[in-house]
Amino acid sequence: MMSRITLRLSGTQVLCRDEHPSLLVALESQQVEVEYQCREGYCGSCRCRLVAGQVDWIAEPLAFINDGEILPCCCRAKGDIEIEM
């Protein structure tokens, strides 16, 4: 399965493929710079707003996130999504 991730601020589109274990890895594979520290969901550095669509959580985030926010390090796109980045 392949999902299209649209980056709201630039309009850039990135494909998230089955071989990408997380949204963060998919973004990095297309040279999108994402701030992160832990890659495990506990620091919250990669936090961003999910504008449209849904994600599947690979692991429950340990960092506090507000409604409408995701941590790309511990989720995958569930179909096409748009994020504020």
Describe the model.
The chain has 85 residues and is mainly beta. The protein has a single domain, classed as Roll (Ubiquitin-like (UB roll)), CATH 3.10.20.30. The protein is 8% helix and 36% strand. It contains 1 helix and 5 strands; from the N terminus they run E-E-H-E-E-E. The protein has one helix at residues 23-29, and strands at residues 3-7, 13-16, 48-57, 69-70, 75-84. The protein has a 5-stranded mixed β-sheet, with helices on one face. Strand 1 and strand 2 (13-16) form a beta hairpin. It is globular, with a radius of gyration of 11 Å. The N and C termini lie far apart (23 Å). The model has no long low-confidence stretch (mean pLDDT 94). This is Ferredoxin. GO terms for molecular function: 2 iron, 2 sulfur cluster binding. Residues 3-85 form the 2Fe-2S ferredoxin-type domain. InterPro entries: 2Fe-2S_ferredoxin-like_sf, 2Fe-2S_ferredoxin-type, 2Fe2S_fd_BS, Beta-grasp_dom_sf.
